[in-house]
C-alpha cells in the first residue's frame, strides 16, 4: 500500500474543454507515450469545479464520466433523452462524454466533483463515505477527498486525518479495508484495464 496526501494548495487549475469554466485538478493519469497531457492522452482525471450558471457540458468523445454535487443543491443534468438528478448532494450520476447535456440549477450555484476515464482504459466508481463501518477496497487507485470539513479514516489498520479539500491518494496492489472514523469523504476508485 502506498499513500500520498494531496494538499488543496498544491492542486492545479485548467479550463473546461469548452472553455465555460475552470477545473481544480486533484489527480489524474495520462498515457506515458504521449508528449503532452491533454484530452487525447487522458486515462483518468479527478477534479472539482463550480457550476455557477446553466449551460452546456463539454463534448468528450470516448470519455465515461461520474459526477457528484459536494456543495449546494438543486442540480439537474438534461439530455435530449433523459435527466440526471443531482438535486441532493452526494448523489452519483454516470453518463458518457458524447451526451449532449445542459445544466439546470434550481437553487443557485453548486460545487461538483468529476471522475472521468477513457472508455476501455479504466473502470471507475464514485461514492460518498458517510457511515461508520468497514468496506473492502480492491486493488487499484483510490482517492479519499475531504469534501466537507476534515475527516478521518482507517485504512488497513492505520489511521489517516485528511483536512478539508485535501485528498489521500491510496495505491493498492491487493484488497484492503477502509473505515470512516469521522466526517465525510468522497471515494473515487480507479482500476486500470489491461
UniProtKB/TrEMBL annotation:
InterPro entries: RmlC-like_jellyroll, RmlC_Cupin_sf, Uncharacterised_HutD/Ves. Transmembrane segments: none annotated. Pfam families: HutD (PF05962). This is HutD protein.
Amino acid at each position: 500500500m502506498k499513500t500520498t496526501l494531496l494538499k488543496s494548495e498544491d492542486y492545479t487549475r485548467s479550463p473546461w474543454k469548452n472553455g465555460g469554466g475552470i477545473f481544480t485538478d486533484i489527480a489524474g493519469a495520462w498515457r506515458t507515450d504521449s508528449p503532452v497531457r491533454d484530452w487525447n492522452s487522458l486515462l483518468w482525471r479527478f477534479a472539482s469545479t463550480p457550476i455557477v450558471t446553466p449551460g452546456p457540458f463539454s463534448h468528450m468523445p470516448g470519455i465515461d464520466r461520474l459526477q457528484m454535487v459536494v456543495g449546494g443543491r438543486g442540480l439537474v443534468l438534461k439530455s435530449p433523452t433523459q435527466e440526471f438528478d443531482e438535486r441532493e448532494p452526494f448523489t452519483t450520476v454516470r453518463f458518457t462524454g458524447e451526451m449532449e447535456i445542459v445544466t439546470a440549477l434550481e437553487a443557485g450555484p453548486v460545487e461538483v466533483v468529476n471522475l472521468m476515464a477513457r472508455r476501455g482504459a479504466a473502470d471507475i466508481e464514485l461514492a460518498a463515505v458517510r457511515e461508520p463501518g468497514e468496506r473492502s477496497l480492491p486493488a487499484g487507485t483510490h482517492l479519499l477527498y475531504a469534501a466537507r470539513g476534515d475527516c478521518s479514516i482507517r485504512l488497513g489498520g492505520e489511521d489517516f486525518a485528511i483536512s478539508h479539500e485535501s485528498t489521500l491518494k491510496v495505491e493498492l496492489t491487493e484488497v484492503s479495508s477502509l473505515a470512516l472514523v469521522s466526517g465525510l469523504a468522497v471515494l473515487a476508485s480507479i482500476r486500470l484495464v489491461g
